[in-house]
Amino acid sequence: MRLADKICIVTGAASGIGRATAERFAREGALVYAADIAAGPRDEDRVFHRKLDVSDLPAWAGLVEEIDGRHGRVDVLFNCAGFVGSYDSLTEIPLDVWHRIVATNQTGVFYGMRSVIPVMRRAGAGAIVNMSSAWGLIGSAGVAAYQASKGAVTVMTKNAAISYAADGIRVNSVHPGLITTPMTDAQDPEISAELVRQTPLGRAGSAAEVANAVLFLASDEASFITGAQLVVDGGLIVH
Question: Which of 29, 67, 160, 181 gives 16 a disulfide partner, CB atoms 3.0 to 4.6 angstroms apart?
Answer without folding.
Answer: 181
